[in-house]
Amino acid sequence: MKFILDAVDPSGARAGRLILPHGEIETPAFMPVGTQGSVKAMTNEELVDIGTGIILANAYHLYLRPGIEVIEKAGGLHAFMRWDRSILSDSGGFQIFSLASLNKVTEKGVEFQSHLDGSKHFITPESAIDIQRAIGADIIMCLDECTPHPVNHDAAAESMRMTLQWAKRSKERWETRPDGDQSLFGIVQGSVYEDLRVESVEGTVGIGFPGYAIGGVSVGESKEEMYRVVEWCAPRLPEDKPRYLMGVGPPDDFLEAIGRGVDMFDCVMPTRNARNGTLFTSRGKVNIKNARYKDDFEALDPACPSPVTTQYSPAYLSHLYRAGEILALRLNTLHNLYFMLNLAATCRKAILEGRFSEFKRTFLARYLVSNGQA
User: Fold this and answer.
1) Catalytic residue ranges
2) What is the pLDDT at residue 96?
3) What is the Cα–Cα distance from 93 to 12, expressed in whole angstroms?
4) What predicted TM-score, i.e. pTM, was given to this entire model?
5) Which residues, at least 6 apart from 151, have a Cβ–Cβ distance to it below 8 Å?
């Protein structure tokens, strides 16, 4: 992996490029979530058509189903799902702690029961690397422990320091086969405590990784707390390495984090909201189920040239959703993903032109007022 920093806006927002084995990714970058080797409701061709350069897959889910043996036999996840662009795989740490039952965490690793069938499994930092090697993602993540919110300082400190130890072991395992095809990112933890976040940044950077992620956010803390965490972490991370904020994707949080120096994002919210009938627009979120859209034939969002909203009226989209048509889920998802990818590209243009703060202020003034958040 090679990271090229093209520009830094006066606000601190960054525009760069990630050169990966399966292509070049312009940053800021939004990564659609393809947890189980599929972005829900989308075909690969549709993802390519709207400019998707990288998707996220999840090692926990793929390890349990279809199983690593199947993916290895297929020749890796790229071949298995017929995706020739980049993939980032999450280690599955968050899912282990949020979905699995009867977790038992020790310095060795974590024992857990599958949320699918109750079978018992044991994952170590080393085996998490092995699993992701078999998946064959371009970017892989260290195993970490994502603490819940709220959590007291002592428990957050213990968890963060164990994550640091796991990061060392992950890197040691990764370095046993330095084939150059995969890049390992370290993950910063420490909950909402500044001293722990700073300690985690310093320790993780001290180990040394090609890129760095800020984890443990969007788990119940307030937006203000999340923004403070980013402010504590991002400026302390190496300028010449990509910075990834895990699990954050609402448009307002996206812009706030970009303005604080973050390069990469993923979130299930755009696709999940789409399946629930909520569409992103430059004028705020739209609940297409609302009666007001039943006979609305105006453009849903004139400021967004989405392939959905330029072809279909709100009335038709509302009808599809109310009728329970599968097409509603597909069109809604296509629109929300296009919106996020287009927003990322627009942010990049504003950064390159040195006017990101102005763009952010104008965008949020429309978006948040429309949603009653300003």
Assistant:
1) 90, 266
2) 81
3) 30
4) 0.96
5) 159, 191
Percent of the chain predicted with pLDDT > 90: 91
The strand order across the sheet containing 120-123 reads: 101-105, 110-113, 120-123
pLDDT digits (tens, 9 = 90+) for 231-264: 999 999 999 999 999 999 899 999 999 999 999 9
The tens digit of pLDDT for each residue in 281-312 reads 999 999 999 999 999 999 999 999 999 999 99
Amino acid 94: pLDDT? 85
Bridge partners (DSSP) listed for residue 122: 111
Q: Report pLDDT digits (tens) over 104-155.
A: 889 999 998 988 999 999 999 999 999 999 999 999 999 999 888 999 999 9
Question: CB neighbours of 165 closer than 8 A, spacing ≥ 6?
Answer: 107
DSSP line for 264-319: EEE-SHHHHHHHTTEEEETTEEEETTSGGGTT--S-S-TT---TTTTTS-HHHHHH
CA distance linking residue 295 with residue 285, whole number of Å: 18
Domain spans of the chain? 2-267, 274-370
First CA to last CA distance, the chain: 40
Average pLDDT, the chain: 95
CATH superfamily of 2-267: Queuine tRNA-ribosyltransferase-like (3.20.20.105)
CB 370 within 8 A of CB 283: yes
Tokens of 201: 């940044």
CA angle 281, 358, 16 (to 5 degrees): 85
Helix (H, G, I), strand (E, B) or coil at 209: coil
Looking at the DSSP assignment, which residues form a beta bridge with residue 27?
16
CA-to-CA separations, 46 to 76, 99, 331, 345, in angstroms, rounded? 22, 30, 11, 18
Within 10 A of 250 (CB to CB), how many other CB atoms are there? 19
* Sheet of 14-20, strands arranged across: 2-8, 14-20, 23-27
Q: State how far Cα 356 lies from the chain centre.
A: 22
E-strand ranges in the chain read 2-8, 14-20, 23-27, 29-31, 54-58, 86-90, 101-105, 110-113, 120-123, 139-141, 183-188, 211-214, 243-245, 264-266, 278-281, 284-287
